[in-house]
Specification:
578 residues, 4-stranded mixed sheet, single chain, 5-stranded mixed sheet, alpha/beta, globular
Length: 578
């Protein structure tokens, strides 16, 4: 098995909850959480006090360490406090993405065996509490009151007590517990074995059924400690949280890592449209930005593309030396749009469009692309932007993760002689398995700890640690002459052509078909009618076919009037489109 670096086995990095105990105490008076919509903020001391109140509630309500507690709502300070209270109590957090349908959410809460539920009022109104037999109490994330309950367990000795009465008496209980007031030295979190389950995180599912990923205390610790050591966040740094915290990516690096070092987190709490996000970035001026490719690509198209396609700029770019000045001006404008105070933009969750990546590299924009998956909580590989290799997904995390290639003999070696195949990973961040799903666990995890990522690619120097991804194994299309086609590579090229907002390449009756949703703003700007739009898409098809291999030729383009259905991570649910 992989030998982790010694520093991950020694204090203070060997105990996740002790990291938070020290952080909350050391940063007691510093701002911790701000709600962007209301502008209200709380300090680390306020947060720790409210966590302690919830611990007292769990204790009085006979919720035990190891019990599951579901968390179903939008990104708010109350969401963060409920998560951290559950984690530091030793119970298991079950975050449910608020974009899941009510039917799916109901099923996942029941499937997880949760005994308590934190939920926004609007979402709770869509659930059937009576059909959640194991959930004993539902607490509003909006008002912090009990909104539904069942009887307390008879073993509590509190037969005449209700959850509501406990909540109503919490102030009295709390003052009795902390007669001198709640102070930094009162923050005490018990040691929890690193192998214990901390989170059951249900995947958002681009290919269908959600699985409950069991992440341990040590899985979270691997991600958080790497973030601390890499100085992704630090005391008084600023974070703007706009990815769903119920997803592993946002959870680890917009919440868990910042809170471990005393950062100030602003929670956007709304869908991050380009206009809203750019406004928030200017106001918050975050020190680090983590995002999915779709967000960066949309901002690129809104800010950069109109500049570099205008006739005067195109002329200037063709003149040596002048092009450097123009690229510098574009870079500065893009940096200012992102707040102007960040060290780098970390892109993850899906591959970055190749054309966008090439241009950002050319103008020396400070970005990097990482690789991860929910099953690793999520991080597998990352490189700081100054050491990032364009076209890669960073290096496997030193001292935490390792990778290898399960060679596919049908794939040729790369130009540099590297073998291609499925990427397998092993290390501290790898999950314990899928909750109540031994068949899926056995299919994903080898006995010696190797996890099948389902991504195809290769490893390169230095030390075969740099990961390159071609596409998902499940989306790969086998052509009639036996060639492997990765639709993501075609989509990356097509999505940067005129009037294309987003696209999918699928196989129909042995031929490739591109499904394209047009960019409404571009179509309106140029006044295109239906027939003109069809002609423009046909021109795109011809342009695409001119730059891809003969076996990758797209036979037709089908215009999709509506946006594709997406996961909360903004990945297209490919399985819905045939």
């Amino acid at each position: 098995m992989y030998q982790f670096e010694e520093q991950y086995r020694q204090a203070p990095y060997n105990d996740l909850l002790q990291i938070y105990q020290h952080s909350f105490a050391d940063n007691f008076s510093l701002p911790a959480l701000t709600d962007y919509i209301s502008g209200k903020s709380i300090t680390y001391g306020d947060m720790a006090r409210r966590i302690a109140r919830l611990h007292l509630f769990f204790e009085l309500a006979s919720i035990k360490p190891g019990d599951k507690i579901a968390l179903y709502g939008k990104n708010t300070p109350n969401w963060v406090i409920s998560f951290m209270a559950t984690l530091t109590y030793g119970a298991v957090v079950v975050p449910i993405l608020n974009d899941f349908s009510p039917t799916d959410s109901q099923h996942l809460i029941e499937h997880s065996d949760s005994v308590a539920l934190f939920v926004n009022d609007s979402l709770f109104s869509q659930l059937d509490f009576d059909k959640l037999p194991q959930v004993r109490v539902a607490i509003s994330l909006d008002t912090r009151t009990v909104i539904a309950e069942k009887s307390l367990p008879s073993s509590t000795g509190r037969r005449s007590t209700t959850h509501r009465s406990i909540v109503n008496s919490l102030t009295r209980y709390f003052r009795k517990r902390y007669p001198a007031g709640f102070r930094p030295e009162d923050i005490r979190y018990s040691h929890i074995d690193g192998d214990n389950i901390a989170i059951i995180n249900y995947t958002s599912g681009t290919t269908g059924f959600s699985k409950g990923v069991m992440l341990s205390i040590d899985n979270l610790r691997g991600n958080v400690v790497f973030g601390i050591r890499s100085k992704l966040h630090y005391q008084n740094s600023r974070a703007l949280s706009f990815l769903p915290l119920a997803h592993a990516y946002g959870c680890a690096f917009d919440m868990l890592t910042p809170l471990a070092v005393g950062s100030h987190i602003t929670l956007l709490g709304k869908t991050p449209t380009p206009m809203l996000l750019l406004k928030a970035l200017k106001q918050v001026r975050p020190s680090l930005i983590i995002c999915v490719p779709l967000i960066l690509e949309k901002i690129y198209r809104k800010i950069v593309v109109p500049q570099i396609t205008s006739n005067p700029i195109r002329w200037v770019l063709a003149v040596p030396l002048l092009d450097k000045a123009v690229y510098g001006a574009i870079r500065n404008k893009l940096v200012d749009a992102f707040g102007g105070a960040f060290e780098e933009v970390i892109v993850g969750g899906a591959p970055l469009n190749a054309e966008v990546e090439e241009f950002l590299t050319k103008i020396k924009f400070p970005f990097t692309v990482g690789f991860g998956m929910t099953e690793c909580g999520p991080l597998i590989s990352y490189s700081p932007w100054r050491r990032f290799v364009p076209g890669s997904a960073g290096r496997t995390l030193s001292g935490i993760m390792e990778a290898k290639i399960l060679e596919d003999e049908t794939l040729p070696k790369t130009e540099n002689g590297y073998s291609q195949g499925e990427i397998l990973v092993r290390g501290l961040n790898v999950m314990k398995g899928y909750y109540k799903n031994p068949e899926a666990t056995e299919a994903a995890l080898e006995e010696d700890g190797w996890l099948h990522t389902g991504d195809m690619g290769w490893l390169s120097e230095p030390n075969n640690r740099t990961i390159h991804i071609r596409g998902r194994y499940k989306t790969m299309i086998l052509s009639a002459n036996g060639q492997n086609i990765y639709p993501e590579e075609l989509e990356s090229k097509l999505s940067n052509m005129p009037y294309v907002s987003e696209c999918l390449v699928i196989e129909r009756q042995g031929h490739l078909v591109a499904l394209c949703h047009p960019d409404a703003d571009e179509v309106k700007r140029d006044g295109l009618g239906d027939e003109e739009l069809k002609n423009a898409m046909e021109a795109n098809r011809n342009a695409l076919n001119a730059i891809v291999a003969p076996y990758e030729q797209v036979q037709s383009i089908e215009i999709m009037p509506e946006e594709f259905e997406k996961t909360p991570k903004r990945s297209i649910r490919r399985f819905l489109y045939k």
